[in-house]
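sry for the spam today, last one i promise. struct tokens for design, 289 residues
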């Protein structure tokens, strides 16, 4: 059955890549209504490469369709290769992007922040490396599998003047001890950003679970939006193309600074047609500053 499911997904991916689909089929049911005066933030690990469950080109049509329907004010993407940055920028034309590749390799990834360009002005942005030398391009902790980064954009609403900072990151996928050290570096930057007086949201694939050391290291700095939300989901975010739906613990999070009210926390784990969008579910949080 597993092999059959893989073959079915591969065939569907080929069809999507070839464009053999009806545009009206690219829809997600039960997209939550955005509360008045809220800001919608999304986090999405888009899966960097082709695999047996779908090519990047094929899945990108589904991911772009989902993002259009959720219509976030800003969203953070993890595993965003140059190919992904190009695809998202070309298809989601309402958005601009703050992006920095983590190293100089051809297969390098960004933890980019996209934002509604007609609604917001970027008043500050940057990237740090989660290492002993955060300003050094391509740096990493000795035991980290690869360089990891955090990218941020401070956004000012052109109409209201409301300002918030969106931080996006992706931690080491091997060692919890490394993730703890990376969080410590990340916290220093977040505290600097908080000191400017603006609310902070932090999206990312943290590769750790609730209650683990890295998660606990983060909690004194920011709050888990899942537990603040008036309407909240519970479940896995590493869904592995639907194979891990019975898992209850997320590894992706949207953290928020004190004083932020969270209206909705939603795990976007639906399929479009018969295909899951990625090996991760996306997250959506509607927040009020």
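last one done:
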């Amino acid at each position: 059955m597993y092999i059959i499911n893989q073959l079915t997904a591969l065939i569907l991916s080929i069809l999507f890549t070839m464009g053999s689909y009806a545009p009206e089929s690219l829809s997600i049911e039960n997209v939550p209504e955005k509360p008045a005066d809220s800001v919608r933030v999304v986090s999405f690990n888009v899966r960097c490469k082709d695999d047996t469950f779908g090519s990047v080109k094929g899945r990108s049509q589904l991911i772009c369709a989902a993002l259009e329907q959720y219509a976030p004010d800003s969203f953070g993407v993890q595993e965003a290769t140059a190919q992904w940055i190009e695809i998202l920028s070309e298809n989601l034309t309402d958005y601009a992007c703050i992006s920095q590749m983590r190293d100089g390799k051809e297969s390098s990834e960004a933890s980019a922040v996209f934002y509604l360009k007609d609604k917001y002005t970027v008043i500050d942005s940057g990237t740090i490396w989660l290492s002993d030398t955060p300003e050094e391009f391509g740096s990493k902790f000795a035991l980290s599998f690869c360089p990891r980064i955090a990218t941020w954009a401070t956004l000012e609403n052109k109409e209201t003047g409301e300002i918030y900072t969106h931080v996006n990151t992706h931690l080491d996928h091997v060692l919890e001890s490394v993730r703890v050290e990376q969080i410590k570096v990340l916290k220093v930057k977040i505290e600097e950003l908080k000191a400017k007086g603006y609310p902070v949201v932090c999206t990312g694939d943290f590769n750790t679970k609730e209650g683990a050391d890295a998660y606990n290291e983060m909690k004194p700095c920011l709050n888990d939006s899942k537990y603040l939300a008036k309407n909240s989901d519970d479940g896995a975010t590493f869904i592995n193309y639907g194979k891990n739906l019975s898992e209850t613990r997320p590894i992706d999070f949207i953290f928020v600074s004190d004083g932020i009210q969270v209206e909705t926390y939603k795990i976007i784990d639906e399929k479009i047609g018969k295909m899951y969008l990625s090996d991760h579910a996306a997250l959506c949080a509607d927040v009020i500053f």
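Residues 125 and 153 are 4 Å apart (CA to CA). ok im logging off now
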